[in-house]
Amino acid sequence: MKKQTRILMVIALMICTLGAFAQKPFAGKITFEMSAEGTTDPNIAAQLSEQTVEYTVMGNCSRMEASQGIDVITIANGNNKTYTIVLGIPGYGKYYIQQTEEDIQKKLATKKFDYNYTEETKTISGYNCKKVVVTVTDLETDEEASETLWVTTELGLGDDINFFEYPGLKGYSLRSEATQEINGENVTIVQTATKIVPDKKVKATQFLLPSDAKSFDEAPDDLKQMLGGAGSDEE
């Protein structure tokens, strides 16, 4: 009887351990590539095909870095509900613009997000995704805009990973499709995850405000003018 009890305890421990591994959140890098559908203009397709964006994600947080003369880092931290843009400007240093939870909630209060979770599926970069149609209503003008997302729940990211862009969305989008008019054509801009790489080196500190960055309010007047008064009432 004691032997059977020990065996059951070992089995229970193994199940708990396996469950813990299965639920461990993803930490790593996701590379997205851009493309265009529905256009006959080769310039549009060519411009978008050259664009790639890499996100570092973990739990409820994501970080994106880009550089085109000015280094830009965006950090969406779902743990403390802040969205930060850090600008690295040659000759000036680093300055940040941060939206707090109060700022974000104020802006989201003017919008309504409706998510239609369908049963249509697609495999993207090895992960099963479901089609979700997002309808965003501007409560001040009643204007609506729709976007199609392909969302996976297999990465194990946090429930608040989407707090800034798609509040309340379940899962993480590995593909987005948004149609807009460009030069008289209805062009669908597509962003698809083409590479997903786990990275154990990702740390929570990467989603905090860089210690060497100053508030944009402290930036020299000539820099503020050069950037068109960024940070005053940014969207």
Shape: globular
Q: What number of structural domains do the residues give?
A: 1
Task: Tell me the number of helical segments per DSSP (H or I, 4 or more residues long).
Answer: 4
CATH class: Mainly Beta
- Report the span from N to C terminus: 67 Å
Helix content: 10-25%
Largest sheet: 12 strands, mixed
Spans of at least 5 consecutive residues whose pLDDT stays below 50 are 7-23
How large a portion of the residues is in β-strands, by DSSP E? over 45%
Q: How is the CATH topology named?
A: outer membrane lipoprotein receptor (LolB), chain A
SSE order and pairing:
Layout: H1 2-22, E1 27-37, H2 42-49, E2 52-58, E3 61-67, E4 71-77, E5 82-89, E6 93-99, H3 101-108, E7 111-124, E8 127-138, E9 144-152, E10 172-182, E11 185-198, E12 214-215, H4 221-226
Model description:
This protein is of the alpha+beta class and 235 residues long. The chain has a single domain, classed as outer membrane lipoprotein receptor (LolB), chain A (Clam), CATH 2.50.20. The chain has 4 helices and 12 strands. It is globular, with a radius of gyration of 21 Å.
